[in-house]
Amino acid sequence: MRVLAASAALLPLLAGAEGRFNCPTIVAPPLATNVTSLHPAHVDFVAAMGDSITAAFAVRSSLYEGRDISWSAGVGSADHLTLPYLLQQYNTRVKVQGASTTEVLPVDIAHMPHNDYHPKTDFLNVAESSGAVHRGSMEEQWAFLKSSAQQYDAAAFKTGWKVVTVWMTANDVCGECDAPLANTEYLSDWTARTQSMLVNISRTFERVYVNLVSTLDLSNIARIQKTKAGCAIEHRILNECGCIDRGNATQLAMLDTNVAAMNAQLHGLAQRWRAKLLAEDRWDMAVVVQPFQERLGASLDWHWLNTLDCFHPSELGHESLAVGLWNSMLCDSEGRKTRCGATLNASTAPRCPTPESVFYTGPDVVPSAP
Fold first, then answer.
1. How many degrees, rounded to 5, is the angle at CA 236 between CA 175 and CA 108?
2. How far apart are CA 187 and CA 193, in angstroms?
3. Could you read off the pLDDT of 205-220 as tens digits, one per residue?
4. Are 321 and 70 in contact (CB under 8 A)?
5. What's the whole-model pTM score?
6. Each residue of 172-186: pLDDT tens digit?
7. In a domain, 50, yes or no
8. What is the torsional sign of CA 259, 264, 265, 266?
9. Is residue 347 part of a domain?
10. Domain extent for 128
């Protein structure tokens, strides 16, 4: 593997005091040749797999997917922070590539999630509205991602550091409200398909940091919907996510139990992949659970949801997810026990990296109860 040349570029402060991002200038460390030294300034490519949240459906309270401001894979701006935007503030060598650049209508609404991908503007954001592991979205999106990667210079893509963020849980769990998922074939299949995706990434990409994003307690979406009369009426008619719309207290409690079961599977995958990569002496890849949402949700209010369907995250929700992910990636093992202080609201500021900051690659940490 070719060793990248060192860089010590001075990084400018690009947001004013009024913006949510207001970090001081730093000197970028030499480019990492080992994933344990990966700094935000080193990332050249971003990619994402997921469902309508990562596709940013209805983020602007319209029927469009606002992919340009998707939390993990939108190009973003000083007025709306995303993971790619934050990374770009530190990479002064090249433009960070792979982020979606515009809002679009979902492709073929009658047959979603299949083929809900816009290659001319989505690039490496292959998330699909209604995407779900049990619907074959993991395999379909991997095919999109592998194909889309071929549009970039082969040498630059091979040697450039890549961040791939995967969050595909909600549509697999939101109908599972009547019985535990633990020890079921359904959950085993969900885990196995996620594992196959990681195998594909490991065999195809070099220099890659994989975020596995665990999920908040989804019963809180139902709680928020009931605080607004219009939302409550709307979701007596709509059925977007099983018992979130019509479930009773017992079903909603089971929903959260099953979210926890899926989160536990992600932690197990991260633990096994860390051991596997260490055993193979492979230092160009990491698989890390980012638990900044895990077991949270009680403090969220209706500002976190859009006003079209009172279900998908609003612009504030997406920006809060982006900041939560960023802070989690930069959080140490001790901080991860309490989700690195995540609150998922407008009061949480992005962490300011130092030249010594690195993305977390240590042992998996399961956060404690809030």
1. 65
2. 10
3. 999 999 999 999 999 9
4. no
5. 0.93
6. 999 899 999 999 999
7. yes
8. positive
9. no
10. 10-341
